[in-house]
Amino acid sequence: MDGINKRTQQSIPPKPNGDSGPPDTRRGAISYDSSDQTALYIRMLARLSCGSTPPSSTPERRVRRLLSLQRYLHSSRLLRGAPQQIPLPILDEDYTGQARCMLEKVGNWNFDIFLFDRLTNGNSLITLTFHLLNQYGLVELFQLDIVKLWRFLVMVQEDYHSDNPYHNAVHAADVTQAMYCYMREPMLAKSLTSYDILLGLLAAATHDLDHPGVNQPFLIKTDHYLASLYRNTSVLENHHWKSAVGLLRETGLFSHLPAEDSLSMERELGSLILATDISRQNDYLSRFRLRLDQGNLCLSNANHRHFVLQMALKCADICNPCRPWELSKQWSEKVTNEFFQQGDIEKKHKLEVSPLCDREVNTVGNIQLGFMTYVAEPLFAEWARFSDTRLSQTMLGHMGLNKASWGALQQQEQSSAAGEEAEPGATATGGGGRSSSKDIPQGSGVS
């Protein structure tokens, strides 16, 4: 497609270390057996297959076997429930009337993704992403096969872990909806190409694909094979990206495009997903701030547009503190629950508990106050400089109110705990404790 070649002028980001596409948790890729009292190692996929790779094998051979097994198992699943050739209009019959009404307001910042997920019977990611792709005319423009697209989205949603309190398909749908809101902002709406929009939506939908519910330091200290594969660098983000590429190739969603265009899309998709690595937050923020200070962001330049898309996805990924209190509080409780679950596992296996993962030391309030102060506020302040709109001011306003609400709750908890300070073994649950609010674990709740 010559049109796509013209739109694909952005520089190709270098490939990170490791060339694999590990499969999802239901096939043993990144899940761990919490009942195993002898080790915390997350089960390697190679050990689950008859022809598993011996430990002495090279990483390249292991990667090929992992991909081979993933494709085999995916194919088996598809054969068991291959979707029929359904015309596009009939797909709308799956929506309830209320869900359709919500989609008419999908660009509203107070969009309740939890309600939408209930109305779609747990299919919020599929329904929302398909709707947006179709609304932008991308299905027709890029000549996407409807059945392949639907199959891809179903597999994406399946490969999110529904038992994760936070990193699940609902979070991915929420990020996709936020990304849509950002791409509708005037500066982006008049500059983004259809190719940019397609990449942005796909990156948002797949940015946490097959997330295990534990962070990067956990994978490193338990010697998980993914940590070795990606040399302890953006381990989760590399896995999310490669998992997305694996599904794109398996479904053949872009198989009708020239190979060069398809590879370029995969690499730029990776560049967006890798930008969500929270350990690189300051690097991206400094570059963004410098661009704004110098006033040299030119959205007619494909590289600059791609960088802004990276920043938009970073904002979408951690926008929970900027949502209305009723939504923000739910997300805060979910991500904290996931932290504490990891901490419980670490305690059970006598590992050092990761920062913010100890339920005996931390509270939802002190974690959120630290996160907003040191991570969210600096990022959204710069985004407001870039896009000084009503939405930006709304987000900053919500974050200010939410921060005040958590502060008030913290004061109440401190007051209630004050009477117990003299009692032996009393635990401080206020804003301090033994953990600093600055100690945001890599990939914690935002990658």
Description:
The chain is about 55% helix and about 0% strand. The protein has 20 helices and no strands. The protein has helices at about 1-5, 60-80, 90, 95-105, 115-120, 125-135, 140, 145-160, 170-185, 185-190, 195-205, 215-220, 225-230, 235-250, 260-275, 280-295, 300-315, 325-350, 365-385, 390-420. Helix 6 packs parallel to helix 9. The longest helix has 29 residues, at about 390-420. The two termini are about 35 Å apart.
SSE blueprint and pairings:
Layout: H1 2-7, H2 59-80, H3 88-91, H4 97-103, H5 113-119, H6 124-135, H7 138-141, H8 146-158, H9 169-183, H10 186-189, H11 194-206, H12 216-221, H13 225-229, H14 235-251, H15 259-274, H16 281-294, H17 302-317, H18 325-348, H19 364-386, H20 390-418
Helix pairs in contact: 6-8, 6-9, 6-11, 8-14, 9-11, 9-17, 11-15, 11-17, 14-15, 15-17, 16-19, 19-20
What is the molecular shape?
globular
Q: What portion of residues belong to β-strands?
A: under 5%
- pLDDT under 50 segments (min length 5)? 5-92, 426-447
Structural class: mainly alpha
